[in-house]
Amino acid sequence: MSHSEPDLTSRSHAALGDPVLQRALGNATATFIERRRESVATVPDWQALRERARRVKEHTVNHLDYYLEQLVGRVEELGGIVHWASTGEDVSRYVVGLARARGVRVVVKSKSMTTEEIELNHALEAEGIRPVETDLGEYIIQLARERPSHIIVPAIHKTREQIADLFAEKLHVGRAQEVAEITAVARARLRQEFLSAGMGITGANFAVAETGTIVLVENEGNIRLSTQVPPVHVAVVGIEKVIPSFEDLSVFLRLLPRSGTGQKQTAYVSFLNGPRRAAEAAGGGAEGATPETEFHLVLLDNGRTRILADEQMRESLYCIRCGACLNVCPVYQKIGGQAYGWIYPGPIGAVISPQLQGLKEAGELPFASSLCGACREACPVAINLPDLLLALRAKVKEGGGEEPGARNTAERASMRAYAAMAKRPKLFAAVGRLMRGLGRLAEKGGRIRRVPFPPLSLWTKYRDLPAPPRGGSFRERWKKGEGKE
Amino acid sequence: MNNDRSPAGQAGVLAEVRRALGHTQTVRPEPLEPFVEEPAESRVEELIARFTAELRAVGGQAHRVISEGEAAALVARICAEAGGGGVGLSGSPLIAELGLAAALATGGLAPFPVADFAPSERGRLIMRLECCGAGVTAADYAIAETGTLVLTGDEEGALLASLLPAVHVALLRPRQIARTLTEVVAGLRRERMGRAAPACRSATFITGPSRTSDVELVLSIGVHGPKQLHVVILGE
Question: Is residue A22 part of a domain?
Fold first, then answer.
């Protein structure tokens, strides 16, 4: 999937200059952080759960061949049809072929990052099959022909007024005033789509190897409708989504909603074992099974085995797509999901995208991080995101690539000057004294609002600098014996 | 779909997985040691109180009744308020025991058992439920610490009845309430969805009515599924 001119820096500037987006991002990330904190506090031993989840993922990924074989065997025993796909095109070809064979013209879809990764909708549209996104946020994004700005709330960058205008224009309905009216319009429209669709396409949050169970987590009910109303259900699932045992679900289903939306439990969680067995429900034999009750599991590689082959990067496959690392990331909080330029945003996106896309395409993303480590702390499976980002930066440089801003002469010159200074303690101290003095001259109420020369002017273009602390540098104070008991 | 198991498919991806892991053949791993958590013991009354509070916190309502007569009257009242006339009833024995069909019909409603529709008539059942005001089901499990109901798909029509109408009423016996998700997951595996008990096609965990915060993070209830969820806790 190609994105996209312009580069990350330009996209970030565009995001920073969009006041609606800035307000929405600030609100969404702060809200999710607070809700997560509250819901995590309801678990007696959160760290033990995280450690367990990490161990389960580590174990599964290290024996992925075994658990995939087990999953596939079990799904087939249950009457499901399994298709393996090396690439996104393989998935598209299979789904389009199936839709054609069943005479499907409309497909209802639930929010699925995996199908967005492979741009399944484009492939369906190209063949005259109409895909309808049914998650409210995704429906809005699809009508607007845009990209999601957040994993959990994809249309958070749009105001209710913008959405009301969009619905009025695209759906030819009266202009809604309230959020409840917008929801009601979408409900009525999408009900018709569910009832007429010939196929439902979902992802999966988890696939249980020992039982063949596909698990889907949601709030709206659109996944339940997508899997229960149309006669054919296709689940497109990355090979890393498998977990060994049914009981592992009790760990992951406590971690995921709390980390994602800050809920103790989402409104709905569906466990699906194979196709609807019409024959059994009717008390008849297998001959009563009608072709309307089909379940297809499409297992997707699309670069995942490449990640698996790299022992250090392997843990990026532990991700359960909760979005917690996005909300806490100081970079994401300011630039939002669209600026990352690919379907997976935030710290985990900066790790996954370059690996799935290639370093040439997305090699600038690992540099979009301050390496503060908040993502690692928030991650429910404790993925070591800062180390993975650093390793990817090294790979980019080894591959002859360069970081964003590498050609920025002012930045390079100042980094070189800093390096020279940092090697000379006396000079370092003297320059420090000079800068603190200058800083105090420019200070107003504890902040420096504008520095007229680069590179600091690049900083103060968007934010204030804190004023230098009073009472000398740390080293000066340490020398004087402050803080020593 | 004759190419499902083509070499480029199964053999391709699995071979890539093995190569990435450096495995020459697939070997069954030692499973992880079990994850042991403090067992949770609670009295039934505590569980009911906790379930009720958690359900209310997510926008659902729990009602406590002791006698079957009370339960039938309460369900009839909720369904009448739901409007629409039609009421889809799941085939659960509890619903038959309560004589709900008669109670609802007496109240001027039009109840019908979803089991009356054969699997081949699924499309008709869906259209019928779509026009209903309410669906009535019986839960198989509940989780006190999250206010969650669990319906299992022994009867698929029941899942549709809990999803399509604007109001979902679920009957629940106090002894079906467990304290934690862990207990319910273990029960589901043992009794319905594990390899030893593959009788059941699906299970649905329901925690409050359908909700979304996709527009400006404003909570909106009933976006796709029911707008109201009533749980009638019946008996001692």
Answer: no
pLDDT of residue A4: 55
Is the domain of A131 the same as that of A278? yes
Q: Which of residues 41-100 of A touch B (CB under 8 A)?
A: 42, 44, 52, 55-56, 59, 62-66, 68-69, 72, 74, 78, 81-86, 90, 94, 97-98
Q: Which domain holds residue A445?
A: 424-479
**B143 at the A interface (CB within 8 A)?**
yes
SS3 of chain B: the string is CCCCCCHHHHHHHHHHHHHHHCCCCCCCCCCCCCCCCCCCCCCHHHHHHHHHHHHHHCCCEEEEECCHHHHHHHHHHHHHHHCCCEEEECCCHHHHHCCHHHHHHHCCCEEEEHHHCCHHHHHHHHHHHHCCCEEEEECCEEECCCCEEEEECCCHHHHHHCCCCCEEEEEECHHHEECCHHHHHHHHHHHHHCCCCCCCCEEEEECCCCEECCCCCCCEECCCCCCEEEEEEECC
pLDDT tens readout for residues A118-171: 999 999 999 999 999 999 999 999 999 998 888 899 999 999 999 999 999 999
In a domain, A293, yes or no: yes
Total domains in chain A come to 2
Answer yes or no: are the C-beta atoms of A154 and A170 closer than 8 Å.
Answer: no
Q: Same domain for A297 and A435? A: no
Window B:171-210, CB contacts with A under 8 Å = 180-182, 185-186, 188-189, 193-195, 198, 200-210
Considering only CB atoms, A27 lies closest to which of B38, B122, B217, namely B217
Which segment, A115-119, A473-477, B83-87, is predicted with the most confidence on average? A115-119
Using one digit for the tens of pLDDT, what is the confidence trace for B9-43? 566 999 999 999 999 999 999 999 999 887 777 89
Domain boundary among A302, A324, A350: A302
Does A430 share its domain with A294? Answer: no
Asked, for residue A467, whether it belongs to a domain, the answer is: yes
Does residue A251 belong to any structural domain of this protein?
yes
Q: Which of B129, B77, B67 is nearest to B97 (CA)?
A: B67
Q: Which of A243, A273, A302 is the last residue of a domain?
A: A302
Q: Which tokens belong to B198? A: 């593959």
